[in-house]
Design goal:
single chain; 179 residues; L-arginine/glycine Amidinotransferase, Chain A; five-stranded mixed β-sheet; three-stranded mixed β-sheet; 11 strands; 25% helix
């Protein structure tokens, strides 16, 4: 990577959407837009079908602090945290797009949580455990029930107050292997 290309793992979320390999890359404080574009040039089409870049509020350390994708086309996103973005398609063309509006146009449901709550308590930072089970820090019962019903998942809660104070979540504590 070049001098203006910075990338951190919490800004990268690999997902499969309608059988397509998608890499979501947040850019802001720790990851640059240039790094997301570099990934597209290096990974499309052999390893990824397309990349969606999401510009996020500087209050978010990483994308996974304010955004996650769950089954059944459900997205958990911190309200007011995401602005303009882009899509780089299989032909490596860069198209401007509002990522959340684009997701809704594709049939995704977006469950929003409070911005301050997402930052202070890592609300959107979920760890997939397999078999439609996820791990999260102390999530409010109403949000948990909404997500479980909409996404058809089970969310197991663990205490994480001290870790969240240091801007870390359950996803931050691991490095899942996506095969």
């Amino acid at each position: 990577m070049e001098n203006d290309e910075y990338l951190e793992g919490g800004d990268v979320l690999p997902v499969t959407f309608d059988g397509r390999r998608v890499l979501l890359v947040g850019f802001g404080v720790r990851t640059t837009k240039a790094a997301a574009i570099k990934l597209a040039l290096d990974l499309i089409p052999d390893h990824v079908d397309y990349i969606i870049g999401l510009s996020h509020d500087p209050a978010l350390l990483h994308l996974d602090t304010g955004f996650t994708v769950l089954p059944n086309k459900v997205i958990l996103a911190a309200a007011g945290m995401f602005g303009a973005g882009f899509l780089i398609d299989e032909n490596r063309r860069l198209n401007p797009v509002n990522p959340l509006a684009y997701a809704e146009a594709l049939g995704c449901s977006i469950v929003r949580c409070d911005k301050a709550d997402a930052i202070a308590h890592e609300r959107c930072n979920l760890l997939p455990l397999g078999n439609r089970r996820y791990l999260a820090f102390d999530m409010p019962a109403e949000l948990k029930a909404t997500l479980e019903q909409a996404a058809g998942v089970t969310i197991e809660r663990v205490k994480g107050t001290e870790i969240a104070k240091a801007t870390g979540g359950v996803h931050c504590l691991t490095r899942p292997l996506y095969c």
